[in-house]
Amino acid sequence: MRAATDALRQSHATVGLKCHHRAWRLLHDGAQTTRGDWTLHKGRRQRLLTHALALTAPDAEHGVRATGRGITVVADAIESNGSLIGVRASGAVKRHHIEALALQWLVLHAADRPVSSGRLVHINPKHTPENGVPLFSVVDVTAAVIRKAEDIDLNLRDLEQALAGDLPPPQTGAHCQRPFPCPFYGSCHPTLEAHPLSELYRVKRRVLGSLSAAGIASIGDIPEATPLPNTASLQRQAVKKGGLAVSEDLSAQLDRIQTPAVFIDFEAVQPAVPAWAECKPFQMVPVQVSLHRIDLQGHLTHCEWIAETDVDPRPALAAWLAPKVAGAATLVAYNASFEQTIMRKLSAVAPGHLKTVLLDATERFVDLYPIVRNHVYHPNFHGKFGLKTVLGVLLPHLSYEDLSVNRGDLASMVLEEFIIHQTPKAHDERAETRRNLLEYCQRDTLALVKIVEFLRNLKRS
């Protein structure tokens, strides 16, 4: 066993309190769990921290680092009166915020940097730039932090002993996947059936228990006589045949998509600090859209829009979008309630008759998600029906693996930097970022077109 030379980071210690095995390996094996988009997270975090402390604790010492009991923590701030301050991009105090401050409390005391009280600074969800309500709320959490610190202290002693010895056995649970997947997940979990019962869609726990009690572990082993909900029944059919299964109703569902058809996808930002008038913290604001259109003759065209300045994008987007959807017999989206909600909100800022155009268009949506979920299944879906999963299985050449921006949450972060904070600054870098964002959103709507085309060809054959 290689001797540990470094203290655990606070994030590692937090998960280590729930799983000594993970903490031991993080410390001794040096595994890294840094996300690829950590730079974006770090930049957003630092910006919020600076803003919050300037308003609520301008004279406090920022970024106080301390090491004690084998753990290194970095407190957001400590005031001269000994008040420990934590800043969180949240609309309320949450349990894990208290846990984080409690761990810092213990380490600071062990490092001869005692603190006497605890305060949590969080976003005030009632704030808007116009209403005079403070952007940040400050909550005294001293009592809660002290109580939690007493609990953690006992667990921390066990963790210290575990880290000093040989590799402890795994302690599996929800923490294996949250808040981020454990890097040792595969070695701690036995190989499952290729298609375990856990992949079944919305099957009651009672039914799953009965199947397990009968010795059935795989979807493919469920007897045909066992009644299942429609989607789960389709899953059983696909796993048994080892390939794609479709329902008899698929054609009728696809016939709901009439031309001219517009396949639409929005991207949005949700800044913690409102960037535009009449916006609240974390309010969703659309800043990008992609449209693929199939006309009456079956011709496919594409158009797109993206905000590029820090001016409120909603009026310009509404004015651009309304004429594009006005003549569509059908609008197609994946999880269409998102697009419908955005279009209703855009209608509120649309000029003149365009307001009615956008509102009317929301009534002509066909949601491709339930069509796929209820009528199509391939064993390689593994119980998931998200667009990226479905596309990667049915049309792998169109997967997102070749894109620099390849996830919705990443796109939202990049868009917030690109539009609100005008980052990057250099012309060439902005052009590349813009291109990456456009490619991602365009792939979303092209995926919708191609999935519909694939399923229609499937039924014809």
Give a structural overview.
- With 461 residues, the chain is of the alpha/beta class.
- The protein has 3 domains: 8-176, Lambda Exonuclease, Chain A (Alpha-Beta Complex), CATH 3.90.320; 197-228, no CATH class; 243-461, 2-Layer Sandwich (Nucleotidyltransferase, domain 5), CATH 3.30.420.10.
- The protein has helices at residues 10-16, 20-28, 38-56, 95-110, 142-164, 185-188, 205-213, 230-241, 250-254, 314-325, 336-347, 354-361, 368-375, 387-394, 408-420, 427-460, and strands at 8-9, 61-68, 71-78, 83-88, 117-123, 136-140, 245-246, 261-269, 285-294, 300-306, 330-333, 365-367, 376-377.
- Strands 1, 2, 3, 4, 5 and 6 form a 6-stranded mixed sheet that branches. Strands 10-9-8-11-12 form a 5-stranded mixed sheet, sandwiched between helices. A two-stranded antiparallel ribbon has the order 7-13.
- The chain starts with 7 loop residues before the first strand and ends with a helix.
- Mean pLDDT is 92; it is low at 1-5.
Q: How would you classify the helix and strand content by structural class?
A: alpha/beta
Helical amount: 40-55%
**CATH fold annotation of the largest domain:** Nucleotidyltransferase, domain 5
Biggest sheet layout: 6 strands, mixed
**CATH top level of the largest domain?**
Alpha Beta
Poorly predicted sequence stretches spanning 5 or more consecutive residues: 1-5
The CATH homologous superfamily of the largest domain: Ribonuclease H-like superfamily/Ribonuclease H
> How much strand content do the residues show?
15-25%
CATH architecture of the largest domain: 2-Layer Sandwich
Tell me the domain tally.
3
Strand segment count: 13
Oligomer: single chain
